[in-house]
Amino acid sequence: MILFYIVLCSFILSLLFTPITVKISARFNIFKPVKSEQGKPCIGGVGIYIAFFVAVLSSLFFIELPAMKISGAILASFIILLLGLVDDIKDLRPLLKILGQLLGILILICSDFSLK
Question: How do the domains of the chain map onto residue ranges?
């Protein structure tokens, strides 16, 4: 049941943080070039990551998880965040995206992360 609350908290925080990061992107002129004249804001993933990070850290008040599992999940998600940011700034080839995602998965596997 606690996993449901973590996911719900992360979802609600994502709904709150993503528009804020999009506004920050617009304010500081951080846009991904697109074929049209106007670019699109490109740091919305940061809001999703912050929501996930806050939900995971707040869950530690309710359940006890080994530090290895938590650090593995946070490191893997951070790698995915960096991969998304680099992809927004400089279009990555699909192979590089897949390799970065596989690295995140490998970190989760090595940290013995599982949902039970």
Answer: 1-64, 67-116
